[in-house]
Amino acid sequence: MRRPDGAGTPLDEQVPVLIVRDRYRLTGDAVLSDLTARSIGAELMPMLGPDALLCTDTSRAYRVIARHTGIRHEPVNLAAGERVRQRVFHIQNVNAYDSRLKQWMRRFNGVATRYLDSYLGWRRMLERLHDNLNPQAILLNAR
Predict the structure, then answer these.
(1) How far apart are alpha carbons 100 and 104 in whole angstroms?
(2) Which domain holds residue 98?
(3) Is residue 141, in this structure, part of any structural domain at all?
């Protein structure tokens, strides 16, 4: 199935990726097998501290994860035009990172799923090093 506008990767060929980002710009990501609460939760929970507050879109999976784990959850209803809740809760850090990630990946004209995790790590490193991008910093930050 192609996107409604006929452009881009067909929806049934896209691989879901979870992006986790905090206010300090620390970033985590994971390639998901699907978008179920079980798959998302298995990758998400190890990235969160016990006192974390989860700000997400209104996807049902996040609500299920929060309920099962007891973590505080603040959903932001983007479809209703909500960008910030209570002047504090938002997902703009994740959305901005996601936009930069997608723009950066376009240059590769598609990435094989088996290499996707490596590309995500490469992008995290580029974001982390930003202005200090040099061979020594890359070697010291390689995982």
Answers:
(1) 6
(2) 11-111
(3) no
